[in-house]
Amino acid sequence: MTSSHIAKKQELPPTAWAVLGLLSFPGERTGYELKKWADSSLRFFYWSPAISQIYAELRRLEELGYASSARSGPEEARAKRRYTITEAGRTALAGWAADTAEAGPPVLKHGLLLRIWLGHLSEPELLRALVADHLERTRDELAAVREAMAHAADVAEWAFPALALRWSERQHLAELELGEALLDDLAQAAAPPSPPLPEPRRQAGGDAPTPG
Fold first, then answer.
1. Vertex 19 angle, CA 145 and 150, to 5°
2. In the prediction, which pLDDT does 103 show?
3. What is the DSSP string of the chain?
4. What Rg do the C-alpha atoms of the chain give, in angstroms?
5. Which of 16, 36, 158, 201 holds its CA 20 to 30 A away from the CA of 148?
6. Sign of the CA dihedral 39, 45, 49, 50?
7. Nearest Cα to 172, choosing from 48, 46, 44?
């Protein structure tokens, strides 16, 4: 690999490595197929790039010699360009995956919590509705994760993606638990304060409260 390629390698964004990672599994794939696979795997624990980003990264990877492509023949009704990883790409990807210094901390951007943080500008009913909608979406996502897990269960090459999906299943279960706890917190925050207890009556000349 030339020094210019090494310099470019260091500048690759995580999305480029993710796309190259999709190519590292057996088979050739079109950009559309890579997008579908990202939607059914990567998005559950990282994110799914837009189709335009996938094609942009594929062009970049080809320029670096990390991927190659070929157009389909006349046997297909519509010509398609299929991509595959090269040996240079596999070597670079393995090096990047083994470099723990590049992993970085997880980044949480929770849009719902940003609105809860601004709850003093909203109504309790609206906040509870937002949390309820979030819980419903999370349940749908959990079902999608489990469907992807079932799809990967019997494929030996997907053993490690299955581990990532299993982590995502646990994360979605935790998100449901946190959402339910948030509903309880909102109910308490919206409850009117309890009235102060009345002062006990005291006997004249004494400190003890009157019985009864």
1. 20
2. 75
3. --HHHHHHHHH--HHHHHHHHHHTSSS-B-HHHHHHHHHTTGGGTS----HHHHHHHHHHHHHHTSEEEEE--TTSSS--EEEEE-HHHHHHHHHHHH-GGGT-------HHHHHHHTGGGS-HHHHHHHHHHHHHHHHHHHHHHHHHHHHHTT-GGGHHHHHHHHHHHHHHHHHHHHHHHHHHHHHHHHSPPPPPPPPPPB-TT-SSBPP-
4. 27
5. 16
6. positive
7. 44
Q: What is the mean pLDDT of residues 108-133?
A: 95
What is the reported pLDDT for 196?
72
In this prediction, residue 75 has a pLDDT band, given cuts at 50, 70 and 90, of low
Instruction: Tell me the C-alpha to C-alpha distance, in Å, between residue 46 and each of 61, 80, 113.
Output: 20, 28, 19
CA distance linking residue 161 with residue 176, whole number of Å? 23
